[in-house]
Every structure is written in C-alpha cells, then in structure tokens.
Design a protein that fits this description.
Largest sheet: 7 strands, antiparallel
CATH superfamily: Pleckstrin-homology domain (PH domain)/Phosphotyrosine-binding domain (PTB)
CATH architecture: Roll
Structural class: alpha+beta
Length: 142
C-alpha cells in the first residue's frame, strides 16, 4: 500500500516523465534562471533533471482581491549539464538570532547565469546531498 506522499510523487513523476527522487519547498532569495526573488516553489530532483515548479496562490484572500499579476504556473527544467554546483549553507544559532540568516541552498549554473539561492522550508541539507550525489557534483561548502 502506498502512502499519500508516495502517490503524489508518482503522479508528479508521471507528469515530469521521470521518477521523483527528492522534493523540497522553498522561497527564492535571488532571481536567476527564470525564478524571481521572493517566489515560493518546489525544487524537484528526478532521475533525468532538476525541476522548479511554481503554482500561484489560490488562497481565499487572493480570490477576493483581483490583482492583475502575471503570476502563472511555471515548470522549469535543468539538465545535469546545466547544474554546476549545489551548495547548502547552514546558518548558525548566532546568525539566526542577530542577522536573521536561515539555512539556504545555492544552485550554480554552467552557463554563467547568476546563482539561484533559496531558503528551504525544511530538510535542505538532505535535499542538497541527494542532488550532489545523483548528479555527481563536487561537494562545496560556503
């Protein structure tokens, strides 16, 4: 019997055309590779690529207030050759307390585009490790 999470990952894998290996929710801290700063989305590792998926908010407040925004669903895919590095930065207690710095992940691109940094909701270290191992990327620390 499959759990609801496994069932959702299977559906997502079918939509992407490759099984989902890891998934994390995060908010972009920088703009890069078609992802604007401040936007929430899913960062999905499949057997063949790294994907970013954004779904616009469908909350009650968003439905009551009609704002003309270009907030459309997006799905971006990045092949292994496009991902140069995936680095996880774990904020210390003191940095969180005094500087407000939380954990974040930085993706570096082989095409020279600016790095994409995002703050994961939770589990960032494990997700970054899976990306590095699957894509056989060098282990870099910030």
């Amino acid at each position: 019997m499959t759990s609801p999470q496994q069932a959702a990952w299977q559906v997502l894998g079918q939509e992407l055309g490759s099984p989902v290996l890891a998934l994390i929710l995060g908010q972009a801290l920088t703009s890069s590779a078609g992802v604007p700063a401040g936007e929430w989305g899913m960062y999905i590792l499949t057997e063949s690529a790294l994907h970013y998926r954004h779904e616009p908010s469908q909350g009650v407040l968003a439905g009551m207030i009609k704002i003309d925004r270009a907030d459309q669903p997006r799905l971006l895919g990045f092949n292994r050759s496009e991902v140069l590095a995936c680095r996880y930065h774990q904020g210390t207690f003191w940095k969180r307390l005094f500087a407000g710095e939380n954990d974040f992940i930085t993706l570096e691109w082989s095409n020279g585009a600016p790095p994409l940094s995002f703050e994961p909701l939770e589990g960032g270290g494990a997700w970054a490790m899976q990306v590095n191992q699957h894509f056989q990327l060098p282990q870099k620390a910030l």
